[in-house]
Amino acid sequence: VTHAVTTNSLSSAETNRTPVDRVDETDCCIVGAGPGGVFLELLLARAGVRVVLLEAHRDFDREYRGEGLQPPTLEILDQLGLLDRFLRLPHSRIPRMVLRTPVGPVTFLDPGKVSARHPYLVYVAQPRLLEFVAAEAERLATFRLVRGARVDRVIQEQGVIRGVNYKQGGTNVVVRASLVVGADGRFSKIRQLSSLELEAHGAAIDMIWLRLPRQPEDTPAQAGIYAGSRGGAYGVAVYRGEQWQIGLAFPKGTYQQLRASGLETVRHIHGEIIPWITDRLGYLQDWAQTAVLSVESSRVRTWHRPRLLLIGDAAHVMSPAGAVGINMAIADAVAAASILAQRLLQGEVRNADLQAVQRRREWHTRLV
Ligand SMILES: Cc1cc2nc3c(=O)[nH]c(=O)nc-3n(C[C@H](O)[C@H](O)[C@H](O)COP(=O)(O)OP(=O)(O)OC[C@H]3O[C@@H](n4cnc5c(N)ncnc54)[C@H](O)[C@@H]3O)c2cc1C
Q1: How many Cβ atoms are within 10 Å of 322's Cβ, its own excluded?
Q2: pTM to 2 decimals?
Q3: CA–CA gap between residue 287 and residue 342 (Å, rounded)
Q4: Start-end of H helices in 139-169
């Protein structure tokens, strides 16, 4: 049986910093167990590559994350032989994404046009998706998920990344690997530590999110993006079974003004843009019930350095407008696994291989 790590004695380079308690060695060390990280880990571990996945949080419970899976992602789950079991998780199917304007609805994403097999979007709470995929990988000896492991350093030797350093409670561990993958999201520490430069592409809005109860007569068909009658204002309604997840876009940089004007203003704007939620806006009584998402659209010019690759939000933060962030991160993972698994088994990932991953995926992210 091949195990995910072998544990070695400490080298002098590692002992002359903060004391290191252990050095593990593996083929691929992935930082961040979001959608990109968990799919990459499963695909590589299934291919026989030894993988360590480091996640700063102890659980997968996060509020207000992306939840909509598009047909290509459902196709991936199908090809992995996981779709039937996946669809046993609580979910809702949405036939299309609709922009609801004051003059009538406009369909802007119709899954039926891209897939005859899965002509719908599936909404699943992101923590359930992550748990499901991670549990699948945890059956494999080649995989190890370390929860509560915060990476704070990359190990570099002559400009080449050789691994990472993480803290877990009071333990300080080095993981040496043939490849480090930064799948650690929009504020990627790995991106920052490896000096890969982020180019911002500007976004005009931020979003404020809240949850409101569902009424018995509500249907998933009410989900969608709602355009207000005042220029540029829009809201989003995401159907989540017992609740609605409601988002309101507001001009970037004006959150303090919005806050100063009071919750009454938020209730008023919401009611104006999505009139059918007016009857339950009274539930919004405290700013603590809301979460603000700073909308970014940015990407790194080069997704890699020798023996290091960025995927998902770490490489490209997407606008939330088409609900594509999760799907893009998963597609990056599939491309990375198909190009790199064999190389990792041979023990050497070349720069050209990492370039090939970026080439295959970059135009999709630019398109969106
Ligand atoms: C509030 C909010 C609302 C969103 N709404 C939508 C939506 O409606 N539709 C949509 O498609 N997308 C949405 N997104 C975006 C979507 O969630 C992301 O695009 C997607 O999750 C990106 O996946 P990822 O795997 O690249 O990174 P993430 O999901 O961000 O995962 C990164 C992981 O890395 C871990 N991590 C970070 N730093 C470290 C470290 N130093 N050491 C170890 N682990 C670390 C984090 O804890 C996290 O688990 C939203 C995002 C936010 C924040």
Answers
A1: 16
A2: 0.87
A3: 50
A4: none
Question: Are the C-beta atoms of 176 and 219 separated by less than 8 Å?
Answer: no
Are the beta carbons of 110 and 96 closer than 8 angstroms?
yes
pLDDT digits (tens, 9 = 90+) for 210-222: 999 999 999 877 8
Closest CA to 354 of 332, 366, 336, 330: 336
Contacts of residue 191, defined as CB under 8 A and 6 or more positions apart, other chains included, come to 182, 184, 198, 300, 310, 314, 315
Cβ 344 under 6 angstroms from ligand 1: no
Note whether 130 and 35 are within 8 A (CB): yes
Q: Under a CB-based contact definition with an 8 Å cutoff, are residues 46 and 198 in contact?
A: no
Which residues, other chains included, contact 63 with Cβ-Cβ below 8 Å and sequence gap of 6+?
Answer: 209, 291
Mutate to test the pocket of ligand 1, among 188, 189, 311, 313 (most ligand atoms within 8 A of CB): 313
pLDDT tens by residue, 275-303: 999 999 999 999 999 998 877 778 899 99
Task: Specify the DSSP class assigned to residue 102.
Answer: T
| Strand partners of residue 304 | 309
